[in-house]
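Quick one, probably user error.
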């Protein structure tokens, strides 16, 4: 049992039309401790019927919510933001417990998620259209921004608070109403967040949430896909699921924001500051145990600095503390489940079989807490023939590829269907502009490993999806543009 200062944060029901309720058919979804796989809580296992009830509520609430003055919507979001920060420690404990994120990082995630709520509260009051110079006398041409309508938000397990916050906050700021479904592995943080929105005074039906198992999720999502009242789907998750959403939403031509898989390159040029590059890789690769879409998946190091870089990196990685996420000292917690650890082990075994050298780590770890841990790992002599070069490992494994020239490394970095994030370290200003422009990704970290921020547009290109989250672009994605032409004014 998870003990919190505010025990009411621990919800075990859906919220539909301001009412906490069980799934219509009464089914339950067990929530497992990622370290052991053992159940420690349960929530509703909802189906299509529950999903439709949530849309009924969101559709009914939309006319009133969308007409509210932006400042009122902003004030509500600000109250929600304050409540999230006031409950930071409890929320961090829920995240750590259900997701396995080390407690220190979980506290950071609460702040990170809250920053989107604050940002979009502020942006709500700055929604502007245009008045366009008329081409014909006696006419006025005006452009309005309007909320798209009911938004379905489908969120992943790796940032159980921040991902749902950065979808819901702009939707509400724009004047949309929301139906949300968090990942089956991590429903408790999302329910707590929605409970706080209710405490902040969110009107009935404006924000609804249903939880569902892997088996029932297709039923919930298909109900939303088929419903013409749902005007937008925002999704973070795998590319195959993103493609399914794009195909199936075509029947009602919904707007889509898809933040999908990545395969980020991290390039260290011969003119880089090596200590800064090691710091950057530690921050971006080992955050959340390597379970983020923007994590470097392929580390390219120039031949001239390769050995020095690998040695410094291995020292830092070997010193990372692996242990229960809720312990203050933990730097790498458990992976999300047994399947995740199996995939990491498979990638490392495949790499070693194809000639990679384990510099540090390279094995499963069993702590007193449970079996779902993997040692932070550095592999040298990685090649494009290895599985980990084509597929996201989603774990604490840094494979190092040696390269000799810029053109070769750009070609290899771009040789993937994915295009979410890329990183590189160099001190040559001409190279910096050349490489930043040549990389086929939506985001580029230049001498920086931690790039996400509420004020920046987060999103990818190619098969990493489309749409942006955060920044003014993130708000625009929840609105459509309406053109008014008024004549007879001459
Ligand atoms: C993600 O892994 O999709 C999100 C990571 C972030 O917001 O930095």
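Nope, works fine. Designed sequence:
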């Amino acid at each position: 049992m998870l003990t919190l200062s505010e025990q009411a944060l621990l919800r075990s029901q859906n919220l539909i039309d301001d009412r906490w309720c069980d799934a219509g058919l009464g089914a339950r979804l067990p929530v497992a401790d990622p370290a052991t796989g053992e159940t420690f809580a349960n929530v509703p296992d909802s189906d299509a019927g529950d999903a439709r009830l949530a849309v009924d509520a969101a559709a009914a609430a939309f006319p009133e919510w969308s007409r509210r003055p932006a400042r009122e919507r902003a004030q509500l979001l600000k109250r929600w933001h304050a409540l999230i920060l006031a409950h930071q420690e409890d929320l961090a404990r829920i995240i750590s417990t259900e997701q396995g994120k080390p407690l220190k990082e979980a506290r950071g995630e609460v702040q990170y998620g809250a920053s989107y709520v604050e940002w979009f509260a502020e942006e709500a009051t700055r929604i502007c259209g245009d008045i366009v110079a008329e081409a014909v006398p006696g006419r006025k041409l005006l452009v309005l921004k309007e909320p798209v309508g009911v938004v379905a938000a489908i969120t992943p397990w790796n940032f159980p608070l921040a991902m749902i916050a950065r979808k819901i906050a702009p939707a509400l700021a724009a004047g949309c109403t929301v139906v949300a479904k968090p990942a089956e592995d991590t429903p408790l943080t999302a329910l707590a967040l929605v409970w706080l929105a209710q405490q902040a005074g969110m009107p009935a039906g404006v924000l609804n949430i249903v939880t569902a198992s892997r088996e029932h999720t297709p039923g919930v999502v298909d109900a939303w896909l088929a419903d013409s009242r749902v005007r937008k789907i925002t999704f973070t998750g795998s590319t195959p699921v993103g493609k399914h959403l794009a195909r199936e939403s075509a029947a009602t031509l919904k707007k889509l924001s898809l933040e999908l898989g990545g395969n980020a390159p991290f390039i260290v040029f011969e003119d880089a500051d090596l200590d800064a590059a090691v710091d950057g890789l530690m921050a971006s690769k080992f955050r959340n145990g390597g379970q983020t879409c923007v994590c470097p998946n392929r580390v390219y190091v120039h031949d001239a600095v390769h050995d020095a870089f690998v040695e410094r990196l291995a020292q830092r990685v070997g010193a990372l503390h692996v242990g229960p996420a809720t312990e203050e000292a933990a730097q790498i917690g458990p992976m999300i489940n047994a399947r995740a650890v199996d995939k990491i082990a498979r990638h490392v075994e495949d790499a070693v079989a194809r000639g990679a050298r384990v510099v540090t780590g390279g094995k499963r770890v069993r702590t007193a807490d449970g079996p779902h841990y993997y040692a932070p790992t550095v592999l040298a002599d990685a090649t494009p023939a290895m599985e980990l070069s084509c597929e996201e490992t989603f774990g604490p494994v840094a494979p190092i590829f040696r390269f000799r020239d810029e053109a070769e490394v750009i070609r290899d970095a771009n040789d993937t269907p994915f295009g979410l994030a890329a990183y590189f370290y160099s001190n040559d200003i001409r190279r910096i502009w050349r490489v930043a422009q040549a990389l086929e990704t939506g985001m580029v970290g230049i001498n920086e490993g931690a790039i996400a921020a509420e004020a920046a547009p987060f999103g990818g290109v190619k098969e990493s999806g489309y749409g942006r989250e955060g920044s003014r672009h993130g708000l625009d994605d929840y609105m459509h543009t309406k053109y008014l032409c008024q004549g007879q004014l001459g």
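The chain has two domains: 7-260+464-483, 265-446.
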